Q: What sequence folds into this?
C-alpha cells in the first residue's frame, strides 16, 4: 500500500505500485486536469509537481510518490504563483484546444517559483519538454513574462 | 443540398440553415424534450458554474427563442454551438455573433455544444452537421446574428408591452433593456419569461446591425469563452468522461493495414489483476485495423493487459509497401501524362521553346495529424439506445454510421459533444473510423454480456500508426520563361492518393476522375500566365488518407510558391515584384502581399547574426477564401542548423469577427506547418508504420517557434475561415528564405538534415 498526498489530501493506493501517477490521479482520484499525451515523457501534458518539482506523471510510479506531496493543476492555481500564471494565461488568451495547457502551466509555475525573472533562454529550457500541437508557444512565452511582471 | 446530408439521406438547404432554424421552440416542447435540464454537456465552469448558471431554476422555464439561444430567468445567456471547439475559437466566434445582435453583456454569455440534429444544426457549406473546411464563421455569420436579433426583438416586445411604451423607444446595450424617457430599466432575465410568450418575428422583419455599429464583432472585447475551463483543469475532453460502471479499453491494433487476427493467446492478459475481459474487434477493410481490446476498470490495467496479449496476425493480404518503393512508384507516375485536372491555354506549346526552362520534382511525405489528445471515444450501448461522447466533428455522418454498426436507427444514437484536444482534420474522419471501432467494440462486448459504458483510449502509438494521413505526393513541374522573364507555360503532374476515393464522399467529391483536393491550390491558381496544364495520377492504396489542416494546399502551395520564387530569380526579378505582375487583377492577394512586405521591411538588409547565414523569403496563397502572405526570416549556422527567427503574416479573411482569435490561428497555423516542413514524416517498412511517438515524429517545441507578427487587412467582405489558411504558406516562405540564405532549393520534405549536406 502506498500513501501519498494529492493537493494536500491523503490518498492510499493498494494496486500495482508501478502504476504511473498519471493514471492514479486521473482514474482513481478522479482529477482529470492532468492529461495523457504520450505516456513516455515526451510531451509534458501530464506534468504535476512532486514536492515542488515538475515531473512527468506518466513515467512516475505511484510508489515514487510515497510519502510525498503531489500538486495538480486543480490546486496549483490557488497559490500565488499559480494564480498569476492563470491570470496571465487568461489575459493573453493562450489556450487553443487546451489539452496541453495544464502541463504548460505546471511547468511555468515551477519555473517562476525558482526563477522570478526568467529570460527567453530560461523559458526555452524550462518549457521545451511541453509540446503544444496547436503551437500556442508565442503566447506561452508572453504569458510567462507577463506573470513574472505581475509577481515582481 | 450538400454532401453530408445527401449521404445521410436527410434534407436541408441553405435557406433552412439560415432562417428555418428560427422556429418557435415552445416552452412546453423544450421541457418535454429536455426535462428542464441543460442540453448537451457542460463545458467546465463557463457553462456550469453557479455564478453563470446555464441550468435555469427548475420552476421558471428559460426563454428559448430559437435553436441557438437560451436566456434564463437568472440572466444567463447560453449560446448553442453547432460546431466543434477544437482550439480554433469557434465557440467564441459563434457567441460573438449572437451576443452582438442581442446586445448582451459578454460576461453573461456562456456556450454549450449542440446535440447531433441535422435538421436544426446543419452546416450549409458542408450540407450536414459538421465542422471543417474553415467554414464555421462563413456559415454562421448571418444565422447566429439573426438568432441574436430575433431574441432581442422578443425581449424588447415584452418590455414594451409591460412598460406600455413604444418598442421603438426601447434601447438595449450590454445586457440592459432601457426606456430612457421613463427611466425604466431591466435585465434580460427579468423579461425572459415574458419574452417567451412573444411571437417569433418573421425573418423579413429582423433588421441586422450596420457593421459600423458593432460593439463586439471586430473588437478585442470578446476574450475566449473556453479560457477559464482550459486553465483550471475543468474543461471536459473525451479523455475525461467518466461514467458509473465504465470500463476502459486499450487495444492492440494490427501492425499493418489489411492484416487480420490469426490467433490470440489471452492467458497472460487475463492474468493481469483487474482485467475484466478481452474482446476481438474485427477490422472493416479500408476503414479500421483489426484489433484486440482489453477491458479493465482503469487505463493502466487495460494497458498492462493489452501489452500482455500474444497475437498472431495474418498479414497475407496486408499493405506491405515500404517508403522507398512508394516514392519510386509516385515518381515514375509523375513523369508520365496523367488525367487532366485543369487546363488553360496550351501548356505544351508554351513550353516548347522557352528562353529558360525550369524543371523540378517535389516530394511530400505522409503526415500524421497527431493531435495532442490521442483519439478516443466513449460509447454507452443499450438494447435500444447508443450514447456517444466524442470531440465530435462530423455529427451527421458519425451518427448514421454508428447506428449502422450497432443496428439501431440514427435517432436512437445520441452524440454528446465535448471539447477536442486538437484535431487538424483527424476527428472529421471520412469513414468515421474510430467511431466504427468504438461502436464495434461496444457491440462485441455487449454480445459477451458486458453491460457497461466503454471508454476506448488509443495510446499515442495507436494514434500515430492509425492511418488517415495527409497523403504523400510527388509533384513534377515544368515551367518556362521568355526573354523578358514572363512565364510561357506551366505543367504540373501530381501522383498521390485521393482523399475521397473509397469513402462515402467519393460521389460528391470526385468529378471526371479528379479529386479536387489533390490539386487544389495549383489547378485554380490565380497567377495570370496563359498556359497551364495540371495532370493527376490518383494512386490506389488500401491505406486511408484524410484532410490535414488545409488539405491539398499543404503540398500544392509549397510547390507553387517555391517554383514561383525560382522563376522570379531565374527572371532576375524581385520575388514580390514578380508576383505583383502576375497578380495584377487579384486585389486581395496583392493587399496581403504588400502588407507583409511593408511590415517585414522587405528589401532592407537583415540584421547580421554572428556565424550565421540569413535569408528572407515570401509566399502568398489563397485557401478557403482567405488570403495569406507570410515573410519568413531564417538563420542557418555552419552545421546547417536552421532557425526560423521571425514571421510576418498578413491575412485577409473578410470582416474580422474576433481579431485576436484570427491572430492566434495564424500563429498556431504557422507553428503547425513549420513542424511539418522541418521534421514530420510517416514512413513505412513493409507496410508497418515506423514512427510511433513524439520521439520519432517530433513536434515543434517552444525553442523552435519563431516570433510572429500578424496583420489583419481591414475588410468588409464576407467573413471566411482562419483555422487552416495560415498553415500552407509557411513552408514555401521558409524554403524561399533558405534559398536566399544558402542558394539551395529544398524539394523533398521534410527538410530534415538536408541543410547540413
Ligand atoms: S503524457 Fe507524460 S510526458 Fe506525455
Ligand atoms: S492548446 Fe492544443 S495542444 Fe496546446
A:
Amino acid at each position: 500500500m502506498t500513501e501519498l498526498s494529492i493537493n494536500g489530501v491523503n490518498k492510499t493506493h493498494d494496486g500495482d505500485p508501478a502504476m504511473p501517477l498519471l493514471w492514479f490521479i486521473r482514474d482513481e482520484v478522479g482529477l482529470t486536469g492532468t492529461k495523457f499525451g504520450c505516456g513516455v515523457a515526451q510531451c509534458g501534458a501530464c506534468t504535476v509537481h512532486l514536492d515542488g518539482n515538475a515531473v512527468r506523471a506518466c513515467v512516475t510510479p505511484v510508489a515514487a510518490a510515497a510519502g510525498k506531496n503531489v500538486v495538480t493543476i486543480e490546486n496549483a492555481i490557488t497559490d500565488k504563483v499559480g494564480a498569476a500564471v492563470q491570470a496571465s494565461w487568461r489575459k493573453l488568451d493562450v489556450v487553443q484546444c487546451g489539452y496541453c495547457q495544464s502541463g504548460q502551466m505546471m511547468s511555468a509555475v515551477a519555473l517562476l517559483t525558482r526563477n522570478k525573472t526568467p529570460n527567453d533562454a530560461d523559458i526555452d529550457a524550462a518549457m521545451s519538454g511541453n509540446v503544444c500541437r496547436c503551437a500556442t508557444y508565442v503566447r506561452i512565452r508572453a504569458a510567462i513574462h507577463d506573470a513574472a511582471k505581475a509577481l515582481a | 443540398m450538400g454532401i453530408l446530408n445527401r449521404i445521410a439521406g436527410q434534407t436541408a438547404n441553405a435557406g433552412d440553415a439560415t432562417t428555418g432554424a428560427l422556429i418557435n421552440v415552445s416552452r412546453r416542447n423544450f421541457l418535454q424534450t429536455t426535462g428542464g435540464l441543460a442540453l448537451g454537456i457542460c463545458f467546465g465552469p463557463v457553462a456550469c458554474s453557479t455564478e453563470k448558471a446555464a441550468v435555469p431554476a427548475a420552476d421558471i422555464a428559460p426563454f428559448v427563442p430559437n435553436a441557438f439561444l437560451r436566456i434564463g430567468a437568472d440572466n444567463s445567456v447560453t449560446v448553442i454551438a453547432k460546431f466543434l471547439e477544437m482550439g480554433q475559437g469557434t465557440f467564441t466566434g459563434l457567441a460573438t455573433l449572437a451576443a452582438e445582435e442581442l446586445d448582451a453583456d459578454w460576461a453573461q454569455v456562456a456556450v454549450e455544444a449542440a446535440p447531433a440534429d441535422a435538421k436544426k444544426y446543419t452546416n450549409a457549406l458542408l450540407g450536414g452537421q459538421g465542422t471543417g473546411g474553415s467554414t464555421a464563421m462563413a456559415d454562421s455569420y448571418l444565422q447566429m446574428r439573426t438568432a441574436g436579433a430575433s431574441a432581442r426583438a422578443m425581449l424588447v416586445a415584452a418590455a414594451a408591452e409591460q412598460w406600455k411604451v413604444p418598442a421603438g423607444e426601447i434601447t438595449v446595450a450590454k445586457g440592459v433593456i432601457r426606456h430612457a424617457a421613463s427611466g425604466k430599466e431591466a435585465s434580460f432575465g427579468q423579461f425572459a419569461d415574458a419574452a417567451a410568450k412573444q411571437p417569433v418575428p418573421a425573418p423579413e422583419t429582423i433588421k441586422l446591425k450596420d457593421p459600423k455599429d458593432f460593439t463586439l464583432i471586430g473588437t478585442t472585447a470578446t476574450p475566449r469563452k473556453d479560457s477559464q475551463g482550459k486553465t483550471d483543469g475543468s474543461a471536459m475532453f473525451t479523455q475525461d468522461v467518466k461514467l458509473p460502471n465504465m470500463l476502459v479499453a486499450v487495444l492492440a491494433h494490427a501492425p499493418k493495414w489489411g492484416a487480420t487476427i490469426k490467433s490470440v493467446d489471452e492467458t497472460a492478459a487475463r492474468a493481469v489483476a483487474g482485467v475484466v475481459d478481452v474482446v476481438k474487434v474485427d477490422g472493416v477493410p479500408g476503414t479500421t485495423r483489426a484489433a484486440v481490446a482489453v477491458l479493465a476498470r482503469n487505463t493502466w490495467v487495460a494497458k498492462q493487459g493489452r501489452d500482455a496479449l500474444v497475437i498472431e496476425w495474418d498479414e497475407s493480404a496486408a499493405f506491405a509497401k515500404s517508403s522507398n518503393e512508394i516514392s519510386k512508384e509516385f515518381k515514375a507516375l509523375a513523369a508520365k501524362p496523367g488525367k487532366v485536372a485543369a487546363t488553360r491555354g496550351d501548356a505544351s506549346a508554351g513550353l516548347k521553346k522557352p528562353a529558360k526552362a525550369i524543371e523540378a520534382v517535389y516530394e511530400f511525405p505522409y503526415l500524421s495529424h497527431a493531435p495532442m489528445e490521442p483519439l478516443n471515444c466513449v460509447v454507452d450501448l443499450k438494447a435500444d439506445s447508443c450514447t456517444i461522447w466524442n470531440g465530435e466533428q462530423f455529427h451527421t455522418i458519425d451518427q448514421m454510421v454508428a447506428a449502422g454498426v450497432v443496428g439501431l436507427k440514427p435517432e436512437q444514437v445520441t452524440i454528446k459533444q465535448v471539447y477536442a484536444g486538437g484535431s487538424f482534420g483527424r476527428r472529421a474522419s471520412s469513414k468515421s473510423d474510430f467511431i466504427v471501432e468504438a461502436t464495434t467494440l461496444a457491440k462485441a462486448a455487449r454480445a459477451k454480456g458486458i453491460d457497461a459504458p466503454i471508454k476506448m483510449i488509443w495510446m499515442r502509438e495507436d494514434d500515430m500508426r492509425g492511418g488517415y494521413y495527409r497523403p504523400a505526393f510527388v509533384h513534377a513541374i515544368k515551367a518556362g520563361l521568355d526573354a523578358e522573364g514572363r512565364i510561357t507555360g506551366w505543367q504540373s503532374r501530381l501522383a498521390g492518393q485521393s482523399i475521397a476515393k473509397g469513402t462515402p464522399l467519393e460521389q460528391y467529391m470526385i468529378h471526371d476522375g479528379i479529386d479536387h483536393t489533390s490539386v487544389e491550390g495549383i489547378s485554380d491558381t490565380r497567377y495570370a500566365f496563359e498556359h497551364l496544364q495540371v495532370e493527376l495520377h490518383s494512386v490506389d492504396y488500401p491505406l486511408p488518407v484524410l484532410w490535414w489542416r488545409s488539405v491539398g494546399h499543404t503540398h500544392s502551395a509549397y510547390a507553387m510558391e517555391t517554383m514561383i520564387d525560382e522563376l522570379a530569380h531565374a527572371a532576375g526579378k524581385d520575388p514580390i515584384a514578380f508576383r505583383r505582375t502576375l497578380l495584377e487583377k487579384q486585389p486581395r492577394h496583392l493587399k496581403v502581399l504588400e502588407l507583409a512586405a511593408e511590415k517585414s521591411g522587405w528589401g532592407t538588409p537583415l540584421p547580421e547574426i554572428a556565424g550565421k547565414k540569413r535569408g528572407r523569403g515570401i509566399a502568398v496563397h489563397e485557401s478557403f477564401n482567405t488570403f495569406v502572405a507570410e515573410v519568413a526570416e531564417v538563420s542557418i549556422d555552419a552545421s546547417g542548423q536552421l532557425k526560423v527567427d521571425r514571421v510576418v503574416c498578413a491575412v485577409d479573411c473578410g470582416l474580422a469577427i474576433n481579431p485576436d482569435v484570427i491572430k492566434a490561428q495564424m500563429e498556431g497555423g504557422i507553428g503547425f506547418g513549420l513542424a511539418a516542413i522541418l521534421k514530420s514524416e510517416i514512413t513505412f517498412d513493409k507496410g508497418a508504420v515506423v514512427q510511433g511517438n513524439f520521439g520519432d515524429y517530433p513536434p515543434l517545441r517552444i525553442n523552435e517557434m519563431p516570433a510572429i507578427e500578424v496583420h489583419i487587412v481591414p475588410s468588409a467582405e464576407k467573413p471566411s475561415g482562419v483555422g487552416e489558411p495560415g498553415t500552407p504558406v509557411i513552408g514555401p516562405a521558409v524554403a524561399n528564405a533558405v534559398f536566399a540564405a544558402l542558394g539551395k532549393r529544398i524539394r523533398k520534405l521534410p527538410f530534415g538534415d538536408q541543410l547540413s549536406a
